[in-house]
Amino acid sequence: MKHRKSISGVEFKTGTKVICINDDFSNVRPLYKIIFRFPVAGEVYTIRGKYDAESIWLKEVINEVMRFPFGKITEPSFFNWRFRLYVEDKIEAEEALKGKEFTSLK
After folding, report:
1. 66 pLDDT more than 80
2. What burial letters (b/e) apply to 48-65, b meaning 16+ CB within 10 Å?
């Protein structure tokens, strides 16, 4: 599966509300599915922080720190392409997206 980098031109920041649009973790090792929590499609989350430019931590999904195969010791994060900006009404959405350019994910 090829990972998409863009999230519709909107920068995710700590405190931003997002909605999960992709909860397909079929490529995750079975053991990880037992010991870690994962976001669920359709649920709203709050960004707690960023791991890097493409991955985020969520306030509502906290996991234990682990040692990854590449040697890094950190809490698992989630690719930002799994989420979209969450807005509660049309006016808020229009304000949030003003001046943004969008690219198709297809």
Report:
1. yes
2. beebeebbbbbeebebee
